[in-house]
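User:
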Amino acid sequence: MPGYFVHNGQLFREGKAVISPDNRSFRYGDGLFETMRVINGNILLKALHFERLLRGMKLLQFDIPEFFTAAQLEEDIVSLCKKNRIADKAVIRLVVFRSDGGLYDLEDMRPNYIIQGMALQQYPVTPGGDGGLVIDIYPDASKACNVFSEVKSNNFLLYVMAAMYARQNGLGDCLILNQYGRIADATIANVFWIKKKVIHTPPLEEGGIAGVTRRFLLEQLPAAGYTVNEQPLTLDDILDADEIFLTNAVRGIRAVGKCRDRSYSSSLTKEIHSWLMDKWK
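Assistant: Predicted structure:
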C-alpha cells in the first residue's frame, strides 16, 4: 500500500513531484531539517525540536508566517503517522526550504516544507550492540566553526562523505574534526566521553550540530546525580577515555566499543541509556 507525505500542509502519495529543478534547496542546500522520533503518537523532545527548527529558520532569514507554528507542524506530523499507520513507532523527517530561484533571487523568503514518515527500526536494547560501535576520525575534510555550524542544514555534504567513508572502511560511525583539529561531532550524532565517571561533551562553539538529545542530557543528567561537563575534545582525549557514546534523537544512545587500538567499557553508558529509555517511554 503506497505511503503518504505532507507538502505545505497537504497530503500527497509517495512519488508525487512537488519541487522543481529550480528549487533552491536542491540547487544550493538552502534550508534545514529535523529528524524526530514518534512513540504512540507523541513526538519525543518535541519542544526542543521545534525550538531548534525555528531558531535555525530565523538564523537563515526565513520570513516565518503566522500559520507556521509548532502546533501546526505537530498536527501535520500526527496526521501523517496515522495515515501511514505508523503512529505507534515512527521516524519523521521535516525539511524546510525556500522557493525556486537563483543564488541572488531572494524576493520570496517564506518557508516551504515536506514531512516524511517511516516506520521506526528496532534498535538493539544494548546501546551499540554487544560489542559497541567501531569508530575512527574522518580524514578528508573538516568542519568550520561559525554561526551556521549548529544548524542541521540541507547542505550535508561533509557528513554524507564521512558516512560513506565509514561504510567503506567497516566502521559504525566517523568523528568529524573542526577547523582546529579537534572533534566537533559524528556523522549523525553528538559525541560524549566518560573519564573517571565524569561525562563530557564538546561545546557547540567547537562546530557540532546542536543535537536535541545532547541538550536534553546536559539539562537533565545533573538532576539525576551525574556530573556533566562541556569541554573541547581531542583525539588524545578519545584514546584516553573510559567510555564513549554517541547520541541522536532517533537512536538515542549508542555505545562505542573501539577506536583504533583502544577498546572501551560501557557500564555507565548502559546505565545512562536505561535512564533515557525510561524517560522516553
